[in-house]
Task: inverse folding
């Protein structure tokens, strides 16, 4: 855990699951229910209770659905705090805030890469390694199929009003769709590099991360694009943190970025890459 603002950056705490350290691709914070939820490559979900900005009691749940790619926390009144987990098996696993498995939703043919929940309706969104982008009801029925991408879809985000979504793919495009009806509104070709992550900073601005450490700021109304290299490896995920954009990179860095200029304001290092030895 860390504090990251425009003016300061500091690690607060580190914790290892009792079952042992394992590659983790997913983490989410539920500020309402005071929980941190993390997903590991060994199919296990870890729930920590937040106690005065510290990681307290721990619960481990073996989902048995393959490695975990992403975790979404619901905010709708009837399911507030419920956990939705994107898994390699093609399923999204729905759990209660206490970690009880409620459903296994078979919404994709290939590994689920990312998942989001509508803030106002009982509706989920997910994308997959099979190039599918769907919305679905909470019982797993497909509502809309958003068509247009021609390769693996790595990430998506939904605007706070729930009217449109954006997605990024290894076909080098950022696409924008209507939630209701699934119509494609725009498609932005962003060069010849696979795109890994996306975050809507507003209803007008999307920021995209690629596999080469670049951030790409896209004005969804005008199509204007700004690029900046911030890391030595791919941008694995993007999220909002107050006024900052937070970019996590495969280079072991966590970067606080101004969303307008793409300038790094703060930086934390969780690990460091080392070149492989060639004398063996």
Result:
């Amino acid at each position: 855990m860390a504090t990251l603002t425009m003016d300061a950056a500091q690690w607060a705490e580190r914790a290892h699951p009792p079952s042992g350290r394992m590659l983790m691709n997913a983490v989410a914070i539920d500020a309402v229910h005071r929980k941190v939820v993390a997903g590991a490559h060994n199919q296990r979900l870890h729930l920590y209770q937040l106690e005065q900005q510290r990681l307290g009691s721990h619960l481990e749940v073996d989902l048995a659905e393959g490695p975990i790619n992403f975790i979404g926390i619901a905010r709708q009144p009837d399911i507030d705090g419920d956990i939705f987990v994107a898994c390699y098996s093609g399923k999204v696993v729905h759990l209660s805030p206490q970690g009880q498995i409620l459903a296994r939703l078979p919404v994709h043919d290939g590994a689920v890469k990312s998942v989001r929940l509508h803030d106002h309706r009982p509706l989920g969104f997910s994308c997959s390694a099979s190039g599918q982008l769907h919305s679905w009801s909470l019982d797993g029925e497909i509502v809309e199929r958003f068509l247009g991408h021609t390769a693996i879809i790595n990430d998506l985000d939904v605007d706070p009003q729930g009217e449109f979504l954006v997605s990024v793919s290894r076909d080098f495009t950022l696409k924008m769709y209507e939630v209701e009806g699934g119509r494609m509104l725009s498609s932005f070709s962003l060069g010849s590099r696979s795109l890994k992550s996306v975050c809507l900073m507003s209803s007008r601005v999307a920021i995209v991360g690629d596999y080469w450490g670049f951030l790409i700021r896209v004005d969804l109304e005008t199509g204007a694009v700004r690029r900046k290299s911030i890391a030595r490896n791919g941008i694995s995920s993007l999220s909002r943190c107050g006024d900052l954009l937070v970019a996590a990179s495969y280079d072991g860095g966590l970067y606080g970025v101004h969303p307008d200029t793409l300038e790094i304001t703060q930086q934390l290092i969780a690990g460091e890459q080392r070149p492989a030895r060639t004398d063996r």
In short: The chain has one domain: 25-238. The mean pLDDT is 94.
